[in-house]
Amino acid sequence: MTTNTRAIKALEAMKDLGISEDEVRPVLLKLYKLYDKKWELIEDDNYRTLIDAYFESKEDKAYFESKEDKQEEHKRKAPASCHDGEKPKQKLHLVDIDNQVLSADNSRQVLQDMKLTTNSQAFMAARDRKIYPGAASSEGRCKDPIDGPCHRSIQRKNMSRGNDKPKSHPGSVSTSCNGSLNASNGNLTVKSLSDVYQNTHKIEATPTCNNNTRTSKGNIDIGSSSPLGEVKSSLDCDAALRTGLNLSRNGSRQTLSEDKKKSFRYVEDITKGSENIKISLLDETNSEDFPKFNYIPCNTLYQSANVNISLARIADEDCCSDCLGDCLSLSVPCACSQETGGEFAYTSQGLLSEKFLTDCMSMVKEPQHHHYVFCKECPIERTKNETKPESCKGHLVRKFIKECWRKCGCDMQCGNRVVQRGLSRKLQVFLTQEGKGWGVRTLEDLPKGSFVCEYAGEILTNSELYDRIVYSTGNDRHTYPVTLDADWGSEVGLQDEEALCLDATNNGNVARFINHRCSDANLIDIPVEVETPDRHYYHLALFTNKDVSAYEELTWDYGIDFDDHTHPIEAFQCCCGSAFCRDRKQKGLFDNLTNLLLELI
Ligand SMILES: C[S@@+](CC[C@H](N)C(=O)[O-])C[C@H]1O[C@@H](n2cnc3c(N)ncnc32)[C@H](O)[C@@H]1O
């Protein structure tokens, strides 16, 4: 292999880890010279030496810069972490500071690094929409004179419920995918997660390296009960560093210190091979417990939800049985495009059309300008008080995409089948620096309108979700539900088993790691109809609403109303860092800090 090919391979290997070419190139060059062009030493053990050198160079850089940087002092004086009770990081990570632009951004970064106190796992109100995975309250769009009606589906667990009938505790059932058929496959018999509970295992916390046996490859064997599969810990297992080589400050090779042996952990594929593409997880700080959940690539029924997937339910006018190949190439758009006004929502490049995306974004930004429907008897209100439910607070009628499906004549490559083809973008779960916990970033540039992933979890009724929340405690709290209410109110008397939501807390896909960002998030959620013609059940797909560069964090506006103090469920303290952050508490702290910094300059 030529030097050039080997260099490209090395850069690609780093890219898969989430390390950009620009950052790693100088380190690679340094190693190449230092090791006298002996590529084997760099390539050994999956580029272990290069990885170590990269992280060490980051740490060194941060160390020297931090000494000169007065802001550092204020960081140490900073208040508590953004997550209450979060373990302190082993090291202060200052490495992003030099990438920030001028003082305003710097001070924001300082603020983020300070890890402000938060109420953490939030139950909160949503203002604009009824979907927000950061909260257990699964709806709550507000419509005061500005925002529209506001209602809440789930009360804080210590609040009494109108209906006190005893219920068993269905929540926190951790299950594996084994044996369950997923709804989105359109199987005629849909088996629920609870049906297979007996045969499944409880998800355990991923043990630390010390508690684990090691595989012959030197990786940590975390056993079949791990939700994350094989963990490659860069340095915390000595086997991972059998070469024992690293680049010291003066460039000589030396054995790693114990401290350095704990610098980061890497999971190659959290999906356990269940997606089209691997999704890695990188913890550069080695400071956070691995998330406890079971990866499921698509929505799966929990118990009582009624998702009736049968071809017979799809009327002839709701599919395009006579089509062939790619519907997007037809001169007259097929029947499925009727849903989007006779024009397809997708372009031939597989992106959302500009017009469709603009319309959807206007719904998020100005929900008060859009149409609401009101249930005669709202399932959410019924959940709160079965005997005397309050009146419905309204549901936004959202724009849907209708994809071609199995009753259609077109093939799987048809341009009107995007979400059902699953993940295709390189994503990585990583530990955010701002105190938001884990987050998701893209490892490739994503053009505006790209499909990223759908929000997958257990499909359950709102009553089931309510019970989960009521009975959950401590670590078991449910923090990842969204409500599928985009069409409620359009029919009389929605039954409980038809009023559905998704909970990705115990069983979910990569979307469960996507954090909230106020107003200028780079993702938007859009309802997508695939296998069911009614809208009780649909897929919630996340698309980019702007061009997103590789290594940017992917974020989604959960629609939280941080000003709603009347709601019994408190929102998390937002660390989104947006200039448009709606969390005033956070803004106040940010302003104070900026003033402090300005005084010091
Ligand atoms: C859907 S999860 C996102 C993944 C989560 N960060 C994790 O580590 O599992 C939502 C939770 O993430 C945290 N979170 C999301 N966005 C946040 C933000 N902007 N500021 C602070 N915490 C945030 C909150 O704890 C919230 O309840």
UniProtKB/TrEMBL annotation:
Pre-SET domain ranges (all copies): 319-422
Gene3D superfamilies: Histone-lysine N methyltransferase , C-terminal domain-like, SET domain
Pfam short name (any one): WIYLD
Gene Ontology molecular-function annotations: histone methyltransferase activity; zinc ion binding
Biased composition (Basic and acidic residues): 65-75, 140-150
Ranges where the SET domain occurs: 425-559
Biased composition (Polar residues): 171-181, 207-225
Annotated compartments: Chromosome; Nucleus
SUPFAM superfamilies, per the entry: SET domain (SSF82199)
Keyword Phosphoprotein belongs to the record: no
Keywords: Chromosome, Metal-binding, Nucleus, Transferase, Zinc
Name of the featured protein: Histone-lysine N-methyltransferase SUVR2-like protein
